[in-house]
Structures are given as C-alpha cells and as structure tokens.
C-alpha cells in the first residue's frame, strides 16, 4: 500500500496552483512502503540547498524506530541503480524493489527479479553496500518458491504480493523462510479475512 501526502511550501502557494509544476521539480520526492516497518508517504518539502545535508534523511523517524525508504517504482522511468542513487541522495537507507521490467543500470540491461543471474545479483548487492542502502522488500510481485529463494539470496525481509484466495494453501512452503509476506491493499486484506471467516463458519 502506498499512501501519498503532499506538503506544499507556504511561500510558493499563491492560491492558484500555477507554481505547482516548478515546485514539484524542485521538491525531493520519496515513496515509502508500508511493509516491514517502513512507513509509507510521499513527502515534498520546500527546496533544500544541496549543502544542507543535516535536513536530509529521517533522523526523527529513526528515533521512533521507524525505517523510512523509497519504493523503486517511484523512479520507474529510471534504472534500479539510479533509484538507489536517488534514495541515498535523500538521506534514506531503505528501498523496496519491484520485479517488473526495471533495468539494473544505464549500462546493464538485465532486469531485476527472481531470474537475475548470480553475477548480476552480486553487482546489485555491491552497489547497495557502496551506497549505504538496504534492499528490504520486493513488490508487488510473485509469491512462488523462486521468489522466496531470490528474496533470501538478496537479503530481503519481505515479499509484497497479491495472491488469489485459493492460492494460500499452495504457498505453505513460505513457512520455511524467515521472510514476511504481505498484501499491499487494505481492502484486499479485509476481503481475504472475510472469506476465511466464512470458510471457518462452515465447520
């Protein structure tokens, strides 16, 4: 689940919204995920000078035990490495990748996902380490054993997916892993619980 909040700069708000595009260009935008303790939010603060590094990151959130990070889909027009760069530039330390066609880098057309080769996986791990960013989640994506093995190998904590209701018995193997498994939409979660309750009431 991605939640959006827009914080407008008072000094740029003339009541007409005519400055919105310029404000969006200048603002730092981060999409945050709601699984594995990462709080979801789009934050667009007033323009921050590049030298003002003290205002980057989320030091107050860290004091509360929150882990704020970007969903790579926010930068889906860029490569994974560029998304990692932008996350690091915001002073954030966590990222959730998505397995739907994002290339690794401008010079590497390999697609991030469970079928990524061992060499390319090592390349991703090294780049993350060099940038000080942790890959904690992947989604919304597959929920088969291949996906869980990939998550384990990449050091991810959580897979975000949308399984069909009848598929839950088929993914019992997930209990063999230490990874969390989450669903992105609250309405979908409620629907699952309603179906489970209906099935249990038959017994």
Write the layout of secondary structure elements.
Blueprint: H1 20-26, H2 59-63, E1 69-71, H3 80-89, E2 94-97, E3 103-105, E4 108-111, H4 118-131, E5 134-139, H5 145-154, E6 158-160, E7 180-182, H6 186-201
Parallel strand pairs: 1-2, 2-5, 5-6, 6-7
Antiparallel strand pairs: 3-4
Helix pairs in contact: 3-4
Describe, in plain words, how this protein is organized in 3D:
The chain is built from six helices and seven strands. With 203 residues, it is α/β, with parallel strands linked by helices. The chain has a single domain, classed as Divalent-metal-dependent TIM barrel enzymes (TIM Barrel), CATH 3.20.20.150. The longest helix has 16 residues. The two termini are 33 Å apart.
Name the descriptors:
203 residues; alpha/beta; TIM Barrel; 5-stranded parallel β-sheet; 7 strands; globular
User: What share of the residues does DSSP label as strand, in percent?
Assistant: 5-15%
Q: Classify the helix fraction into a percent range.
A: 25-40%
Global Rg: 19 Å
CATH architecture: Alpha-Beta Barrel
Overall structural domain count: 1
Please identify which CATH superfamily we are dealing with: Divalent-metal-dependent TIM barrel enzymes
What is the CATH domain class? Alpha Beta
Helices and strands: which structural class? alpha/beta
Q: What is the averaged pLDDT score?
A: 73
CATH topology: TIM Barrel
**Between the first and last Cα atoms, what is the distance in angstroms?**
33 Å
Indicate the low-confidence ranges by residue numbers. Answer: 1-54
User: Order of strands across the widest beta sheet?
Assistant: 1-2-5-6-7
Q: What is the string of helix and strand elements?
A: HHEHEEEHEHEEH
How many strands, what sense, and barrel or not for the largest sheet? 5 strands, parallel
Q: How many β-strand runs?
A: 7
Helical run tally: 6
| Shape category | globular
